[in-house]
Amino acid sequence: GNSVTQMEGPVTLSEEAFLTINCTYTATGYPSLFWYVQYPGEGLQLLLKATKADDKGSNKGFEATYRKETTSFHLEKGSVQVSDSAVYFCALIDTSGYALNFGKGTSLLVTP
Amino acid sequence: NAGVMQNPRHLVRRRGQEARLRCSPMKGHSHVYWYRQLPEEGLKFMVYLQKENIIDESGMPKERFSAEFPKEGPSILRIQQVVRGDSAAYFCASSLTRTSKSSYNEQFFGPGTRLTVL
Fold this sequence. Notes:
The structure holds two protein chains of two kinds. Chain A is mainly β. Chain A has no helices and twelve strands. Chain A has strands spanning 3-6, 11-14, 19-21, 23-26, 33-38, 44-50, 56-59, 62-65, 75-77, 86-93, 100-102, 106-111. In chain A, a hairpin with a 2-residue loop joins β7 and β8. Chain A is globular, with a radius of gyration of 13 Å. By secondary structure, chain B is mostly beta strands. Chain B is 0% helix and 47% strand. Chain B has strands at 5-7, 10-13, 19-24, 31-37, 43-50, 53-56, 65-68, 75-79, 88-95, 108-109, 113-117.
């Protein structure tokens, strides 16, 4: 079935550093891809999504491009802030068409 | 507009007891999904429900687990005779309409219930 693999954490960065969190997928066809973020004590929030190849999702300074050649959907941000400290999950829709398959999550800590 | 509510946030049970987890979807949402996150794992789909109907329970263990979403009231995930391996975070999500391959309708997640089985 459809699945994602994302880089293990934790990732620790200084404020204003560049962020990349790698995510690759295995899928039948080209399912929609997502990045979710979970802030401490809260539920998962949709950060951005891309519904077809070459789409770029963006939100709050984060970006990810759906690349079918490399089956990747890496999350990037040019300058992280302390408030970006959270757990980030890469996900895709599985073959059911409604269930989300998540990666294990990558914990990000941004220090002042 | 309140988000998805889950309670309790933390639940401790001894082996053999029952655990009941509640999920109130966002207002107007009639589609509910339950996911489980085992330690060091990503979230795994368990069950998809609409009001009074189970649409897909393929991700839910056949024994001891059940779920319902009655016409009135929250969705309930019930685990009977809990074992240590049931210790996990259980997340509920809701959507306004059904998500499909061609039309993604965002699933809004609750904060989760962390179940600890002693």
